[in-house]
What we know:
Blueprint: H1 3-9, H2 14-17, E1 22-25, E2 32-36, H3 44-58, H4 63-92, H5 96-116, E3 124-125, E4 132-140, E5 144-147, H6 155-166, E6 171-174, H7 180-197, E7 205-207, H8 212-220, E8 226-230, H9 233-245, E9 249-253, E10 258-262, H10 268-280, E11 290-296, H11 297-312, H12 332-347, E12 351-354, E13 372-375, E14 391-397, H13 400-408, E15 412-413, E16 415-419, H14 423-429, E17 439-442, E18 454-455, E19 458-459, E20 466-467, E21 476-484
Bound molecules: 2-aminohexanedioic acid.
Amino acid sequence: MTHAATLTAAGFTSAELTGGTLTVRSPIDGAEVAHITETRVEEMGEIIALSQAAFRQWREVPAPRRGELVRLLGEELRAAKAELGALVTLEVGKITSEGLGEVQEMIDICDFAVGLSRQIYGLTIASERPGHRMMETWHPMGPCGIISAFNFPVAVWSWNAALALVCGDPVIWKPSEKTPLTAMASMKIMERALARFGDAPEGLVQLVIGGPAIGEALVASKDVPIISATGSTRMGAIVGPKVAARWGRSILELGGNNAMIVAPSADLDMAVRAIVFSAVGTAGQRCTSLRRLIVHKSIHNELVARLTKAYASLPIGDPRVGTTLIGPLVDHASRDRMLAALAAAKAEGGTVHGGQTVSSGVPQGGAYIAPALVEMPAQTATVKTETFAPILYVLSYDDFAEAIALQNDVPQGLSSCIFTLNLREAEAFLTAAGSDCGIANVNIGPSGAEIGGAFGGEKETGGGRESGSDAWRGYMRRQTNTINYSAHLPLAQGVKFDF
Ligand code: UN1
């Protein structure tokens, strides 16, 4: 399909795509596909006020009824899956299957949130005082600002929006400047769900398009109590303290530098498949992409040989073509950063396989590059830095404790995994003294998490949790209640205060 046909299928009119100041390019061929109108900073006050007004109504709508809106969103997403998936491919350069997979992830979180809307449970707690009962109640917090990254332009929004909405919080979404189109298309889908829902307050879900100043307005506002931000550690280091300084709550999902330990007993066929998908899938542009391989010395050469062979067979090219496995990087700056990291790794003693620019058999104008495998003598500064591109550094180890130490010796703490058939190693990897990451897997790669688990990580990854499990608690305020149904007023801790 041509870009124009993909945009029309996603419901865009030419007026929406022209006349604005934000230029959108497709990573497929670098073509300018739209000039979008940006939100002006001066409008942000009104947008936030509208969100607050929506909050005052939405918080009183029963949670299962709020869930109905998300159920309708899930239905609309199912109906629009092909068109939105194709738009993700156009705007981010993901291969077709991954574009569709991203929309499936949105549908999955909607289903999860619908169930959650009837399961916002609090505890009942034993009181030490006679005739008293204690409990916890969960209340909506207020507007939730969602700052999302280009690489999962719509799924990460839906993780936050689906939960926030059932939790009673309006949302204001600031997508990456690189991906306004998928955001606008998602809003169109959301608007269809809102229309069917009928009586949602105006401004319950808002989209703001623009650069850092727009994001800063959200981050600075006391009227936006929750900021959920996904992106670089550099961005998080700015957002986190600013939100904290005004007593807001932030949910941060920042950099990853995800490793796999490959132990001597590993099923190497499975490991090779897991490595290739997680290191080169999405052209290495997932937060969860595999970036470091920590391989036992006894199998290092065999594994590297198998991987270099597998890498050489990977089809690189137009992500719209069904056989392609590696599409373009998001832009040329990204490819320049990858090349700079490879040069730095080489200077630190690395041996680079692959990593060359690809210009034949691919659409002209895109940043196509062969994935790189880099054998490193040690975990150098470059290995410890996240480069958002398909670079896999290979390190080797002698004993298991050394492997765990290498795995943990980076500033980031998102995802991790081990390939082993040794039960002791597998279990040790998951203990308090094992992986220090928010996600730790056994015999599967570090990427491609399901929505049912809490998603996020430690250290410079920011500590936030989104998506499944009890991540919903991050979108609500907890109230502890003590109810006295007796005719006396005993004090806790046996304190006497008679007068
Ligand atoms: C991200 O890259 O920010 O686990 C999200 C995964 C996907 C989500 C990645 N489900 O790889």
